[in-house]
Amino acid sequence: MGRRSILMAAGWVATAAAATLIGLGAIRLVGESITGTPGGVRSEAEIERALASPEPAPTGATGGASPGASTGTVAPSISSGVRRVFATDGGTAVAECGPGGVRLVSWAPAQGYRVRDVDRGPDDDVEVTFAGSAGEHELKVRCIGSEPVAVADD
After folding, report:
1. The whole model's pTM is what?
2. SS3 call for 110
3. Rounded Cα–Cα distance for residues 44 and 48 (Å)
4. Which positions ≥6 away from 142 have C-beta within 8 Å?
5. pLDDT average per 10 residues of sequence, the chain (154 residues)
6. Residue 24, CB-side half-sphere exposure with 13 Å CA sphere
7. Nearest in space to 88 (alpha carbons), one of 43, 140, 53, 49
8. Which of 51, 95, 122, 145 is most buried, taking the most CB atoms under 10 A from its CB?
């Protein structure tokens, strides 16, 4: 009876070890697709660089910006207008001018902020407000000529 119990325990341990090794081998075979982030994790600096220069800017691009808002590059959009990236401490937004006026194409809050309010347009002006523990940052954009420009709030 004692020998039989020892053999059963040894068999159970061997089966558990084999199952564990097969599972680890399967995970290794599949790779990062279930254990990692596809494409890797990007740093904040890499994301800022990518947002700051999505496409080369045409020469002679000018425009005013409200205090606290910086403008990124100007690039022709697929629709009829010009797109521009705007950045504040609270987040970033992409706007374009078209036949119906200015519209927000996209917006994203910075880490620690959320979108409190957004008027995406198209209209004479559009705005997005980012709110966080450090305060609120409002970005208001209008078309001057055919280019979106950040303006001070009325």
Report:
1. 0.51
2. coil
3. 6
4. 102, 124, 125, 148, 149, 151
5. 87 92 78 55 73 50 43 49 89 92 93 93 93 93 92 77
6. 6
7. 140
8. 95
Q: What is the pLDDT of residue 53?
A: 61
User: Which residues, including other chains, have CB under 8 Å from residue 63's CB and lie 6 or more apart?
Assistant: 71, 74, 84, 144, 147, 148, 149, 150
Using DSSP, state whether 122 is helix, strand or coil. Answer: coil
Give me the pLDDT at residue 153, please: 72
Angstrom CA distances, 85 to 13, 35, 50, 97, stand at: 61, 34, 11, 12
Single out the residue of 65, 86, 84 nearest to residue 74, CA to CA: 84
CA atoms lying within 13 Å on the CB side of residue 140? 9
